[in-house]
């Protein structure tokens, strides 16, 4: 199968060459179509804290045939976190890059014309949020990672099925457009979110009291008012959304601690830790 860069499958060697050309010494750890990149020293981690550098690294990974790059900002034993005051963090289930692209083609490209005023999530940012932590001292990242390792160990790996387009408060009045979960994976996702909520409470984060609703956010719209011209397109949107019957089976093997950086171009995400479910393996990062 041809990769985005025109090669046959992911090429870790080509990626390492490209990274060296960028002046970066990173360990490349292929995980299927995912490239986990770990700086060899604290200086490399500092370079990766720059958003533009990370974008170039991700582009190099895609050119080498990987669908996504997980960039570890903290080398083992490094102290890069101490040089940054706060991170805007959330805990999530990541979606494979190939599935992200299929969701874009099957759903987002079909529905965007129906909601011209909506802000659609960039495909590479699609995920399921388990808990939003907000602005958090960088010095607390290690404690969060340790808590997540314990929480993830309580839940064995599982599969979830993404299907059915929905909206809050309703398809005819969409404020938030989402892709839902069905089957046993939905209950397992809820159990994982509860374990994460409990673990975060032990290290000082407020416990979420609202019922967890597992979903993958696709878009957000501006508030509609009586007589708003956006109300008419929303009716066409509802019919189009109901006609979409695609479904995707996603293996869930880890939970991720993600950093969000806001900019005029939208949010940029970096995975700081990937904690395996069932206690298997070790934690990686982006």
Give a structural overview:
With 286 residues, the chain is α+β, with helices and mostly antiparallel strands. It is 31% helix and 31% strand. The protein contains seven helices and twelve strands. The strands form three sheets. It has a five-stranded antiparallel β-sheet. The two termini are 25 Å apart. Residues 1-7 and 282-286 have low confidence and may be disordered.
Specify the number of helices: 7
The level of helicity is 25-40%
Low-confidence stretches: 1-7, 282-286
- SSE class: alpha+beta
Average of the residue pLDDT scores? 83
Radius of gyration: 19 Å
- SSE sequence, one letter per element: HEEHHEEHEEHEEHEHEEE
Strand order of the largest sheet: 5-9-8-7-10
Number of strands: 12
Instruction: Please tell me what the overall shape is.
Output: globular
Largest sheet: 5 strands, antiparallel
N-end to C-end Cα span: 25 Å
- Proportion of strand residues: 25-35%
Q: How do you describe this structure in short?
A:
It is built from 7 helices and 12 strands.
Can you lay out the helices and strands and say which pair or pack?
Elements lengths: L11 H10 L4 E6 L2 E6 L2 H7 L2 H13 L4 E4 L14 E9 L2 H15 L7 E2 L6 E11 L3 H13 L4 E13 L2 E10 L1 H18 L13 E6 L10 H12 L4 E6 L1 E8 L6 E9 L10
Parallel strand pairs: 2-3
Antiparallel strand pairs: 1-2, 4-6, 4-11, 5-9, 7-8, 7-10, 8-9, 11-12
Helix pairs in contact: 5-6
